[in-house]
Design a protein that fits this description.
5 helices; about 160 residues; Aminopeptidase; single chain; five-stranded mixed sheet; alpha+beta
Length: about 160
């Protein structure tokens, strides 16, 4: 890791296509949690919607101009290696890491770990006291990653498909 410099910078509208490319190469169905269903990214069957990339493009566009969200670029040697979308609950000083994705060719190199450390420092500098996230129940690799980086499980969620 010593030879790889990781930095964060505010997301930019002109880089949305790069974020979408990373999202598209990294998304898998085990990533889906109730949050993806609630925001319309996934169906009630926990499958990605057919228009997921168009939805994500709209989300990035909205999030980049919202006071309640921060989009951060994760840079490796000055090049975009990933992104993070953080929802900010300012009065409560709670942040939710809605998404963090590292490009496939940059995974396994400590970039995600360093990015989390920088995200935490960024939030602490703004006096946020807690960082929450959710993860699909089958996304075991992500669970191990987050636990390795100091996160602990605080809830368990359930879903039941209703007949319509």
């Amino acid at each position: 890791m010593a030879d790889i410099v990781i930095t964060l910078q505010e997301g930019k509208q002109e880089n949305i296509e790069k974020y979408l490319s990373i999202f598209n190469e990294c998304k898998h169905e085990s990533y889906i949690s109730h949050g993806e269903v609630l925001c319309g990214r996934a169906t009630h069957n926990f499958k990605w919607t057919d228009d997921i990339l168009a939805q994500m493009k709209d989300e990035f566009t909205d999030d980049l101009t919202s006071e309640n969200y921060t989009v951060l670029e994760i840079l490796r040697l000055g090049e975009i290696a990933g992104f993070a979308i953080i929802e900010l609950y300012k009065p409560e000083k709670v942040a939710v890491l809605d998404d963090i994705m590292i490009a496939k060719d940059a995974q396994g190199k400590g970039i995600g770990t360093e990015a989390l450390r920088l995200i935490e420092a960024y939030l602490q500098s703004k006096n946020f006291g807690i960082l929450l996230l959710e993860s699909g129940v089958k996304n075991k690799g992500a669970h191990e990653f987050f636990e390795k980086n100091g996160f602990t499980q605080v809830s368990v969620e359930y879903a039941k498909r209703l007949k319509t």
